[in-house]
Amino acid sequence: MEAPSQKSLEKVLSQRALQMSSSFPCQICVVGLLCGVCLTSLFLAALTSIGTFEFGVFSFSGFSTMNSTTQMINMVTSEDCNYEEKGTESRMNTQKNDDKRSTDEKVSLLYSAWSALLNESMIDDGEFFQRFRLSKSSVPKAPHFENCKSKKKVNERLDTHGKNGRFPPWTIWKGFLDIYPPSEPDEQMRYLRRQAMSKGSYPPWITGSDDDNYPFTRKVQRDIWSHQHPLNCRDPNVRFLVADWEVLPGFGMGAQIAGMCGMLAIAINEKRVLVTNYFNRADHDGCEGPNRSRWSCYFFPETSQECRDRAFELMGTKEAWENGTIRGKDSYRSREIWAGPTPRVWGNPWSYLQPTTEINGSLISRHRKMDQRWWRAQAVRYLMRFQTEYTCGLLNVERHAAFGREAAKMVLVGLGQEWPEDATKKPKSDIEEYVWSSHKPWTPTPILSMHVRMGDKACEMKLAEFEDYMLLADRIRQRFPHLDSIWLSTEMQEVIEKTKLYPNWKFYFTNVRRQQGNATMASYEASLGRKISTNYPMVNFWMAAESDFFVGALGSTWCFLIDGMRNTGGKVTAGYLSVNKDRFW
Q1: Distance, C-alpha 345 to centroid of its chain
Q2: What angle do CA 461, 276, 222 make, to 5 degrees?
Q3: CA dihedral defined by 424, 425, 429, 430, rounded to 10 degrees?
Q4: Is 275 helix (H, G, I), strand (E, B) or coil?
């Protein structure tokens, strides 16, 4: 037991120590010590961030030695002295997040504004534009849209004879440059242009050089147009061939188009004007007025309205049938339609096609159906030479769904911080309105189109797995490493699911319900309805024809026709990688 005197001493010392700690001079010392620790820690942290500093024989390497002093410094630094740095970083992150959120909101607003412009039912500025205090005129131009009304107007001029039976204005003056108002001193220029038209310049729906297209493509297209557009449709020497499109359930759209290519060959060989009639795939509410149930719902008609009227008039006269002025599809056997003689008007240009198609690692330079391949390419190009306003609108909608947000980001970068705060209408310059009017709508480039045909096609060709198509796509990418986008068309849902296995590619495809299992194509199309089952393949077909590269299956008639459109659209030298060959080669 401790002595009472010792306990009294400890009690006195404790009270004295408590009084000293409460005194003002002591508190000053403690505060000074803590401030010194803070300053020292900042100095040491600066040395540590710079690295190793040498002073004479001493070396500082971030203070690798740990003792009680450095532990205290680290504790104070982390808890007390780093608040300003953390606050700055937090403010910077907040600013970045705000900027990103502001950009994302602008992208969404611009995308929505473009979506509203696509809605034909909106009147004036509409509810959307009123809600966001915008006007249609203040919305920046969508680079992935085409002006379908203006395009139709221009193409109608390019598909109609000029005065005195001249060719349409097929000069090198593209787009709206053709209607640019010349000044008085330019009368000589106008005369020279009229001379060029009268001699028959080549049609404007062919792009690229002659080497980028099948042989004689420009001449063939001009001659087909002239054959299908006689100056006087009531001339007794003008004869007609009127044909419905195939309507049997087993015929897909590719087979229907291929069949009509055969009818056009017969018409040219017999010097008749082809007039197409009932097209079952256009028998839906999207095709209105006289274009319902007609090819002209999607593309310009194959002949003039005058010739169509004359042909249908002659169909009602017995004499015209008897003297052969008019004939119908039933006048020809199936073999004549599907495997009849290719027109020899232009010689044998298919005999020197460039070998640009690869199958199983080898170029195909010769096969048994080279003439048919060349002719179908010419025929399908002519039949699809100009899109209607309806088809143009379908493509605008699909491009917007696929590329709209990318386009919005791109446009906003060019506008800076001006829109929508400074959403004023800026007048068009002449170069915008006339010179740039013929430029095609924007898509991510380069882009590869891939058509994967599976399902019931196994009865006609050897099927390939999606992985086989992707191997060919990877081969193209090895040569063109900046290629990273694929426009994918397929009827199979399992193919869409497999795209997730290829994160290094960006896939685009139409938003449509796809086939599951092994149902026939006819039953699948019936389940979609006639409108959807016609519209979405048309969009895919055109996107494939315009893409930079193409991977498909030549055993598919659809792929065969896409190949033809590309080979008459300046894409010959892009090549074609196929997973199989046509069964008739």
Answers
A1: 37
A2: 90
A3: 180
A4: strand
Helix or strand (DSSP H, E) at 240:
strand 239-243
First to last CA, the chain: 116
Give how far the C-alpha of residue 27 lies from the chain's centroid of Cα atoms, to the nearest Å.
Answer: 74
455 half-sphere exposure, CB direction, 13 A CA radius: 22
Contact predicate 189/221, CB 8 Å: no
Helix (H), strand (E) at residue 59: strand 58-61
Sequence-ordered list of residues with C-beta below 8 angstroms from that of 295, at least 6 positions apart, any chain: 245, 276, 279, 282, 301, 302, 383
* 3-class DSSP state of 481: coil
CA–CA dist 458, 75 (Å, integer): 73
Q: What is the pLDDT of residues 369-407, one digit of tens each?
A: 899 999 999 999 999 999 999 999 999 999 999 999 999
SS (H, E, C) 357-423: EEECCEECCCCCCHHHHHHHHHHHHHHCCCECHHHHHHHHHHHHHHHHHHHHHHHHHHHCCCCCCCC
Determine how many CB atoms are found less than 10 A away from the CB of residue 46.
9
Q: At residue 441, what are phi and psi to the nearest 5 degrees?
A: -65, 150
DSSP-based three-state secondary structure for 274? strand
Exposure of 76 by Cβ count < 10 A (0-12 exposed, 13-18 middle, 19+ buried)? middle
Sign of CA dihedral 394, 399, 402, 406: negative
Q: Which of 163-172, 292-301, 418-427 comes out lowest in average pLDDT?
A: 418-427
Answer yes or no: are the C-beta atoms of 144 and 403 closer than 8 Å: yes
Rounded CA-CA distance 558/564 in Å is 10
Tell me how far apart the alpha carbons of residues 264 and 324 are, in angstroms, rounded to a whole number.
17
User: Are the C-beta atoms of residues 238 and 230 closer than 8 Å to each other?
Assistant: yes
* Whether 534 contacts 510, CB under 8 Å: no
Residues 81-133 pLDDT 10s = 444 444 555 555 555 555 555 889 999 999 999 999 988 644 555 678 888 87
CA-only gyration radius of the chain, Å: 37
> Which helix (H) or strand (E) element contains residue 276?
strand 272-276
Q: What are the residue ranges of helices labelled H in 387-516?
A: 389-415, 430, 466-479, 493-498
Which residues touch 219 (CB under 8 Å, ≥6 apart)? 202, 346
Q: With contact defined as beta carbons under 8 Å apart, do 370 and 351 qualify?
A: yes
- Smallest CA-to-CA distance from 279 within 259, 265, 263, 293 is with 293
Give the CA angle between residues 399, 403, 409 to the nearest 5°: 140
pLDDT digits (tens, 9 = 90+) for 31-80: 555 555 555 555 444 444 444 333 333 333 333 333 333 333 333 333 44
| Residues contacting residue 86 through CB under 8 Å, at least 6 positions apart | none
